[in-house]
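Lab notebook: predicted structure, single chain.

Context: the supervisor wants predicted structures on file for every construct in the current expression panel, including those that have not yet been purified. This is the next one on the list. No modifications to the sequence; it matches the entry in the shared construct table.
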Amino acid sequence: MRTSRNLLGHAEIERLLRRLTEVVLEKADAARGREIARVGYLDNYYPADALGINHGWCALWAVLARRLVGGTIMVTIPHVFLYLRGWSYDAECPEGATSHMDLPTYQGVPYAAPERATIECAYDRWDGEVPYERPPFHWLKEIT
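Prediction complete. Output recorded below exactly as produced.
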């Protein structure tokens, strides 16, 4: 997929990003179960839906999305999202929005100017809720 991602159409990008959201949620559910079994309670945050991804795991989603379809990781105060060919994407909006301010996370938020970020920069901005020290790129093998 990496070598041909410049050839991806908008519909294929949307399909891949929807599948990415499903995989992230499956992995979060499995990790949640393992942690409860191990310690009897949750010490970390595990999202249960796309809204949950955007409120704690958005940087992880953006890093994986960039590896999957290309683009640029963008960071604002409340959110990390993917920008690709004039479209902004996140877990709640895999179909893309023509402006990052049209993403659901920004509804009701005063204008937030995004900054470009490297993978390392986006990863460093996590608040410690995600229990992964490095992006789990091996999850992408499950996306077809």
